[in-house]
Structure formats: C-alpha cells, structure tokens
C-alpha cells in the first residue's frame, strides 16, 4: 500500500474547503503552509469553484479506486464461476488473509508510517475517531429499532454495516491526491489513527456483530473469536509508539520489505474473496432488502450528513475536517466478508450488502464533497 504521489496529483486543499479573506482557516493561508507552485484554479468570478473543479481530483481518484475494486472482485467472481477456484479455495484465501497477510499489513504500515513529530496531534484524532465510530454504532442501534422487525435477517450485521467503514483503502488515495505535499503527513496521520481505532473496534466488537448472526455462540467461543490475529497484532503494534521498537524494525529492511510485500496482497485477496462469495448461490433478492436499504441509508447518507453539520458548526482545522468528512462517507469495511466466512456469518447477505454500498459510494461520496465545498464557500 504505497503512499507516494506524483506532483501532478497534488492540488490545493481549497478545492474542497475554499478559504476567503474572512475565513479563519489559518493553516491554509499562513506563509509556507502551502507550496507556492500549485495549480491555479479558474473560477466564475464569484470565488466559487466550478462544478468540474469540485469533481477533480478526489472524485476521479474515487472512481478509479472503486473501479479497481470491482474489476478485482470480478476476477474472483469469474474464477469461481469458471471453476478455477472452488468454494474451499475461497475459504482458504479468507483464512490466509485473516491469519497472515492482514497482520503483515498492520505491522508494516504502523512500523513505516508512524512519525513521532506528529504524535502531539494524535489526541484529537483519537477522540474524533472514537466519537465517529461509537456514535455511528448508537445511530445504527436506534435505526435498527425503527427499520427492522425482530424476525428479519441480519439484525446484528445491520449494526456493523451501518457504522464500521472502510478506513484506509479508499481514503488514502483520496487524501494523497487532494492535499499538497506539505500537508499530506498530517492527513495520513489522521487516517492512521482512525484505522487504528476502527481496527480495534472491528476486530473485537465487530466480530460479534458479523459472525454467527443466526445463532449466538457461547461466551467462551465469542471470547476465542475475539482473540484473532488482526486484533492481537494491532495491540502488539502499539509498541511502535516506543522509538526503540520502531528503530529495531527499521534496522531490519529485509524483514520490513517482506512484511510490506505480503501485506500488500491483502486488499486484492479480500476482493477476490468478495467476488468468489458473490459467485456462490445468493438468496432471493427480497431477502434482507430492508436490512441492506436501511444500513445504506444510515451509513451512506445519515452519518455523513451529521458529520458535515458538525464540521460546519465547529469549523475545525481544515485537513482534519476533510479527513473526518471523508471517513464518514466511506462504505462498510471490506473485511466484513472475511469475518462472515470465518466466523459463521451470513456470507450471501454480507456480500450483497457490500456490493450495494460500494455502488452507492460512487454517488454519495462526491455528493458530500460538493456539499462541503458549497458550505465552506460561504463567508464566515
């Protein structure tokens, strides 16, 4: 998961949060905050970017990222339909992701990207990530009581799909495309902290929501499920906060490169598992449609709208605001399908729900980026 970007893909932050003379967004107007040599924006004379400018570059990167997602998933779908991969092979890939490639990705990412100079900013990021995730779960819990009847499938899955989102694969290319080079470190730090918080919640509480939706296991089995490799590795990776530990990994480039290479297979393998799961016999279209529609409404519309209102009211530092809004608009985490397969969840329903959410993201993410730009274009 490389985070490098070329100069042609770096744009001013005010394409999404325009800064006027009356606005108090000092980080984007202070000397040296933004490189002087940047792409000039043509406007209509009213200081508001044209719609075509709003859709670039983030929406183009979004289309590319989700397009790649669907193409790789299509390979998994075709491999199963053509009997290149069996259902057992897909299950084995899922186990490999859970036990090997994802832990390697976590260690490599935390060991490589953590910058101690930015640690003082992590407190606010940590609080914001906790608030966004936990408030999402509370909103989903309230929404479930309104949307779903007790006999409808996916009661616990609904909570996870409505609140635990893709925190890295989509946000990282968007942030590296939008932010100027001098601000990328801060943006990636916010994503790093968010991934850490979301990972801890997903691989502990999320396991209980996504796995065994039809018949809850006993307490001992649930605790055993929570002691999974991604959670244990994430907890162990917190030792990278101590400089000697991070220095020890940096002193072993062969090990670091190996972990990175194996970790980079995680996203493609998860997508192949998703496509292969979709190739299996799916339930009738009317099964779970209310659950899917309700989780999409909460995850893709309600939570981003509430986040945008909060950002508009508080007016936080713009890089932080942009990343927070971006995280709130993301569809559910792809690892839902891995958990569903490994821990007895509803695989067909999970696969279909993920497919619908990622299709919707093509429209809802640009929508909220445009709304954010319009709101922040108003004089303060």
Characterization of the model:
With 380 residues, the chain is an all-alpha fold. It has one domain: Na+/H+ antiporter like fold (Up-down Bundle), CATH 1.20.1530.20. Helices cover 67% and strands 0% of the residues. It has 17 helices and no strands. It has helices at residues 26-29, 51-54, 58-81, 87-113, 122-147, 155-161, 171-178, 181-210, 219-226, 229-237, 243-250, 253-263, 266-279, 289-314, 318-329, 336-342, 347-376. Helix 8 packs parallel to helix 15 (318-329). The longest helix is centred in the middle third of the chain and has 30 residues, at 181-210.
The coarse overall form would be globular
**Beta-strand segment tally:** 0
CATH architecture identity: Up-down Bundle
Percent of sequence in beta strands: under 5%
Oligomer: single chain
Number of helices: 17
Quick structural summary:
This protein is mainly alpha-helical and 380 residues long. 67% of the residues lie in helices and 0% in strands. The protein has 17 helices and no strands.
């Amino acid at each position: 998961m490389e985070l490098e970007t070329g100069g042609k893909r770096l744009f001013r932050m005010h394409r999404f949060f325009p800064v006027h003379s009356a606005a108090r967004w000092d980080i984007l107007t202070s000397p040296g905050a933004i490189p002087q040599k940047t792409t000039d924006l043509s406007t209509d004379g009213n200081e508001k970017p044209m719609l075509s400018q709003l859709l670039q570059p983030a929406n183009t990167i979004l289309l590319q990222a989700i397009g790649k997602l669907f193409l790789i998933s299509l390979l998994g779908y075709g491999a199963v339909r053509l009997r290149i991969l069996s259902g057992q092979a897909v299950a084995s890939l899922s186990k490999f992701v859970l036990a090997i490639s994802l832990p390697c990705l976590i260690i490599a990412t935390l060991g490589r990207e953590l910058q101690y100079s930015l640690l003082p900013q992590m407190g606010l990021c940590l609080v914001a990530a906790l608030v966004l995730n936990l408030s999402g779960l509370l909103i989903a819990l309230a929404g479930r009581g309104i949307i779903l009847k007790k006999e409808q499938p996916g009661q616990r899955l609904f909570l996870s799909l409505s609140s635990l989102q893709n925190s890295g694969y989509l946000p990282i290319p968007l942030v590296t495309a939008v932010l100027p080079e001098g601000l990328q470190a801060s943006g990636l730090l916010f994503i790093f902290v968010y991934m850490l918080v979301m990972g801890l919640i997903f691989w502990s509480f999320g396991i209980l929501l996504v796995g065994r939706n039809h018949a809850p296991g006993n307490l001992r089995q649930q605790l055993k499920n929570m002691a999974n490799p991604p959670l244990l590795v994430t907890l162990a990776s917190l030792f990278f906060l101590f400089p000697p530990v991070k220095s020890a990994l940096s002193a072993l480039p062969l090990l670091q490169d190996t972990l990175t290479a194996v970790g980079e297979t995680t996203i493609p393998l998860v997508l192949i598992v998703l496509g292969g799961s979709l190739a299996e016999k799916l339930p009738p279209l009317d099964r779970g449609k209310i659950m899917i529609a309700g989780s999409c409404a909460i995850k893709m519309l309600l939570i981003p709208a509430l986040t945008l209102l909060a950002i508009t009211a508080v007016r936080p530092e713009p890089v932080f605001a942009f990343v927070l809004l971006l995280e709130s608009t993301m569809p559910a985490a792809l690892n839902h399908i891995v958990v569903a397969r490994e821990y007895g969840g509803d695989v067909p329903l999970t696969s279909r729900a993920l497919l619908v959410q990622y299709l919707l993201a093509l429209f809802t993410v640009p929508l909220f980026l445009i709304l954010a730009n319009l709101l922040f274009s108003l004089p303060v």
